[in-house]
Specification:
Elements: H1 5-19, H2 25-39, H3 52-63, H4 68-75, H5 79-82, H6 87-105, H7 116-133, H8 136-150, H9 157-177, H10 181-195, H11 197-209, H12 211-229, E1 237-242, H13 245-255, E2 266-272, H14 275-288, E3 290-298, E4 311-316, E5 322-329, H15 330-338, E6 344-346, E7 352-354, H16 361-371, H17 379-391, E8 394-398, E9 404-408, H18 413-420, H19 422-426, E10 428-433, E11 436-438, E12 450-454, H20 472-485, H21 487-503, H22 515-525, H23 530-538, H24 544-565, E13 584-586, E14 595-597, E15 609-613, E16 619-623, H25 627-630, E17 638-639, E18 641-643, E19 651-660, H26 665-674, E20 680-688, E21 691-700, H27 703-714, E22 719-725
Parallel strand pairs: 2-5, 14-16
Antiparallel strand pairs: 1-2, 3-4, 4-5, 6-7, 8-9, 10-11, 10-12, 13-18, 15-16, 15-17, 19-21, 19-22, 20-21
Length: 727
Amino acid sequence: MATDFKKEYIKFEEYILGNNAKANMEIIKKAYDFAEYNHRGQKRNSGEDYFIHPIAVAKKLSQMKLDDETICAGLMHDVLEDTPVSREEMAEEFGEEITFLVDGVTKLKNLNYTSREEKQAENIRKMVMAMSNDVRVVLIKLSDRLHNMRTLEYMTRQKQKQIADETLEIYVPLAHRLGIYSLKWELEDLCFRYQEPDKYYELAEMVNVKRREREAYINEIIETLSKSLEGTGIDYEISGRPKSLYSINKKMERNGIAFDEIYDLTAVRVIVDTIGECYAVLGKVHSLWRPIPNRIKDYIGQPKPNGYRSLHTTVFGEDSKPFEVQIRTRQMHKECEYGIAAHWRYKENNTVQTDFDDAMSFLRRLIEWQQEGGNEVNNKEFMDTLKTDFFSREIYVYSPSGEVYSLPMGSCSIDFAYKIHTEVGNSCVGAKVNGKMVPLTHQLKTGDVVEIITSKNSRGPSRDWLNFVKSNQAKNKIKQFFKKYNKEENIEMGLGMVIKEAKKYRQSYKSLLKEEWIEKIIRDLGFPTEDEMYASVGYGKTNPEAIVQKLLRFEADLKKEEDLNKPIDINRNHDQPTNINNQVKVSDLEEDVEVKFAKCCTPVPGDPIVGFITKGKGISVHVKTCPNIINSKSPERLIDVYWTNSKQDKFPVKIQVITTNAPSILYDISKMMSTFNVNILGINARTDQDEAVVDLLIEVNNMNQLSDIIGKLKSIKTVNNVYRVKN
């Protein structure tokens, strides 16, 4: 049954005005109608009308007290992606600001990706770039992801897990970094439900069984604390906050304990008006219950980097059962629930003002990273940096002046130096931690006071630093240094790395480095010159394997073209078929044609073969398993062929011998070959530490003789393996 969206709008408008009485319903109604019209007829996996989803997203944004433009973008967030509406059309109807927000969360499409991971990375990268310019982009995306997670039961099991994994890996850390804890906790529990459903429902049942007992205990605590606060003049609210199933499970896994050993399943939260009252309530709590040492956390005096502020203390209650008390002001509580969204304010003229305080530090760091080269790295490096430097578990260290810095766990003094500034890292020569000199490789821990010693005479970072810095930002800045100051060295090193990679495929690599192929790769990769490409390889931005693989593809394409398109003279003798050396008989042809053997797979008598009619009507004979035949786009040009060779015919074939590096190995191979009266057309040997690889080009009569030769070679004591090379 179709949804009546005119009736739905009445409820929607009431909800929006309930959150902001000054909302501009004219523009919001316009966005509502525009999105509903363009999504009309589209369905979700549940079977309900698709527009139900954008309405839910817009409601969440309204709940977070966001502005009219964001709510409009929430209503239309899938229009550019899922309907024929263009960006230009939307900008003409709703202006650039709303269109930018919609475009920021629109997934890239119609592009060629080598994997799902690359596509995911490119879309997340696009969102993060847009988020750096306007944080509302990610608030829309988080609201979108939350509603999708709430309705995930209509997806396949594989898709559920895939989306849950991505949510926990990217969107939960984003919500955490932006301080939106209410959204973070719900996303975590939903991810847990779809990642490990059996464990989730088992834990939910255990929590429910103890619910009454726990609620009674918490009510006693609330009653005791309320009596203590009577007469103080403090306007307070006290409530119990149940611990999320995800956090309970993580605590059990982290500490290796059973459910029955967890006592703090519920925390008590006290909300007051002023910071002074927060500390007064803390004093009352400690006068009623004994605090547990080292479990008092003052996030008001020292807020978390994402702006979170609150007092936390864990105390012993009745029967020595520990429980946690959180104390904060009403403003702090609002910021905790909605994080950075709580800093958006409505003004009389409906424009938005943003309070860039501690809650914006994450975005500032993100912007700085992109300005310092983050926008130049490839998708894999981008995602690695995002996960390692911005989303991983962190430590908090201090500068001598008391400024707090967050670093990935496992960071050393060099990571800290580059965190302060690129030039501080480049000129770093030593470090003091808590007043004592330490090696630059010294791992830091939360609470350390770190002082970096610099020198104007420093020659810059060492390449060895790349082996022990933890943050990708530090790694990228070190690479940028070598890119800028050691260009000639990088060019030489990059060329050497490409040659080394090419030698993995053939010792005589020079035939691969054709000038026209190199020039094409330079254009494909977007480099202005050959030197710039090799320099990029030298300082670690471009993978040499990517260049060599392109060269190998060019070579394979050339061989294929030569094989399939080379003109062949046709012999029109109707009396007797005259194939080359009478080796192959071609069926289903009234006239005789010249036959040649494909160089790409070098067939040998006994191989299953097939003919390919080239453009000149000659026949090219391939092994049936040849990739050029399997991937042929012209199956109608395939024709049956049969072996008719005589015992005197010889056929070239390549084999490779893998052996331990022994002095007599070439002698042993040659001696064995002589027993078969086999002609060796070519031999190439190379060593890699204790192993040697010997490439042989030999002439054989047929497959039986080849099998005998391979069997004999394998019988040599130093030989590990022998196989035929079909290219």
